[in-house]
Amino acid sequence: MDTILYLGRLTFALILGMVLARFFVNRKFARMISVAQTIVVWALLFFMGVNTGNIEGIVSKLGTIGFSALACTLCGVLGTICISFFACKIFNRNAGEQPIAIAPRKEGSLVRRIWDIVKEPLFLVGIVLSGMFLRLATPLFNWFHSSLISYLLYAMLAFVGMGLVFQNTNFKGMFSHKELLLLPVFTIVGTYLGALFVPLLTSFTIKESLGIVSGFGWYSLSGVLITDLGFPVLGSVSFISNLLRESLSFFLIPFFGRLGKQFYYPAVCTAGATSMDVTLPLLSTHFGSSTVVSNIYHGVIMSLVAPLLIPLFF
């Protein structure tokens, strides 16, 4: 019953944001809403670090958390690639005959490209670690209560709902290629298939492993949501795991793009929830502008199901 009520509150926050954007918030404030969402995400990550700092003996567990997160990421991504590539062979058999769609682009040095990929993940991890350090080293956050994370989470979901409305995406073209409607299914099935192997590498149960990977790349939601459910260590693992998934997709999407159109499914499914925003330019660059609608559709659906699926495993 508690899980149902929690899901109801999360869903209400998301729908409330969509309603506010549709009827009460002028579209000219879209940029301001986007900035506010970013600030809330940073606050969530910071206080997730503070909450993690409350865990007894957390410093000695950091190495285990990092390894566990990497195991979850690799298993989830490998499962996703296998299922989505197999699905492409069934539903899109002619993909291999299509030319590779790579638009001309300027590329800097290898070091610059690597830095462009890792700088944001490093910044976000730094926010979490700063919150944890300040909690461990100072009395500044003795007042902190974990309920603050819940309120910030609801605010973030409301902003996400507004963003979905402000994107004003037309999905009519999706129905001319009905197999693309199944892309989120391939992502979920593949991710969960890979998660079944996580207990072989870590001490997590299958249920915990499934919950950890259920962010599908939406690190700011998964980590905070699991922490809010009363599992701060698992929340930290999920945050890092989903952050690594997003970072890994920056490497894999260009790689798949150069292999050919038949790797579009693995590319977009690996991106997970990020296919509608941060990895959208990469996907459209390497697989053509005709994939923009399906990329956004996939990301929107994954963003909608993630907050519904995560609580089911805890």
Q: Mind explaining what this structure looks like?
A:
This protein has 314 residues and is mainly α. It has helices at residues 2-23, 30-53, 58-91, 110-137, 147-167, 183-195, 206-213, 219-228, 232-259, 264-271, 280-287, 292-309. It has one domain: Proton glutamate symport protein, CATH 1.10.3860. It is built from 12 helices and no strands. Helix 2 (30-53) crosses helix 8 (219-228) and helix 8 runs antiparallel to helix 9. It is globular.
CATH uppermost class:
Mainly Alpha
CATH fold category name: Proton glutamate symport protein
Shape: globular
Helix content: over 70%
The major sheet is characterized as: none
Strand-helix topology:
Elements: H1 2-23, H2 30-53, H3 58-91, H4 110-137, H5 147-167, H6 183-195, H7 206-213, H8 219-228, H9 232-259, H10 264-271, H11 280-287, H12 292-309
What descriptive keywords fit this protein?
single chain, mainly alpha, 314 residues, Proton glutamate symport protein, globular
Short description:
With 314 residues, this protein is mostly helical.
